[in-house]
Amino acid sequence: MENESNLSSLDKTILYTIRIPALLQKKIDSHLQILKVLKHPEKNQHKWLLNAIHKKLLKEVNSQEISKSTNLNVKLDDDLADQVDKRISQINRVYPSYSKKQWLLEAIEEKLESENDMVQNKLAQFRK
Amino acid sequence: MNILEKRKIQYSISVSQAFQKRLNQHLFVIKKLLRPGCTKEAWLTEAVKEKLKRDKPNIVVEGEKRVNLRLNLITNQNLEERITKIRPFHYSYSKKKLILEAIHEKLEEDGEPIREQFSKYQCSLSASKEGG
Fold first, then answer.
1. Model's pTM, two decimal places?
2. B29, B64, B111 member nearest A21 (Cβ)
3. How confident is the model at residue B85 (pLDDT cuts 50, 70, 90)?
4. Closest CA to B89 of B105, B108, B97, B73
C-alpha cells in the first residue's frame, strides 16, 4: 500500500506556466520544425523542453559549478535613450509588463541573429 | 561640443554566462575579421538604433508566449535543490531563469549538429529526385 502511494506520488506532475520572449519561441519553433522533418525523437516541444532542463541539471550537478550571471552595460546617448523610452511606453499600452531590459535584449538578439550568417561565412573562409 | 551631447545613460542588464560568451565570440569575429576598430559599445548602440528603425510605431511587438511545462516530482525537487544552491550567490535567481538558460543552452548545443543533419537530408532528397 505504501509503495502504491509512493508510486502514485511519483506519477504526479506539477504544471508550470512560464512566459518566454516571442523571439525565443520562434527559434524553438523553427528548431522543432527541422526535428520533425528529420523524424527526431525530440520533435515534441514539451519533450524537448524537459530534455533541456534534464540536460542542464545533469551538467550542473556533475560540475558543481554555479552559473554566474554577468552584467552587460549598454550606454546610450540622451536622444537615443529618449527614443527607446518612447517606444517602451508605446508597447506598454498593450503589454504593461514589457520592460526596457526585454527590449534591449531583443535588439541585441536580433542583431546577433542577423549577423550570424555573415560571421559564420567569414569564419569558414578564414578556416580554409 | 555641448555638454548634453556628451551625456550618456548607462543600462546594466544581467545576462547569463552563455549569452555573454556568445556575444563576445560574435564581437571577436566582427572586430578581428569584419570591422576592425568596432567596439562593443558601438555595436550595442547600433543594435538599438537598428531595432528602433525596424519597430514602426503602429506595429505592435509580439509579446511573450506562454509555455506550459509539466514536471514530475523528482525533476521538480532537483530543480528546487539547484535553485537553493545558487540563491546564496545570486539572490534573484529563479526557476524561470534556470529554465530559460536551459532552453538557450540546448538550442546552442543542438543547433549546429541538427542543421548539418538537415542539410545532409536535403542533399540526399535532391539526389534521389535527380536519380529518380
1. 0.72
2. B64
3. confident
4. B97
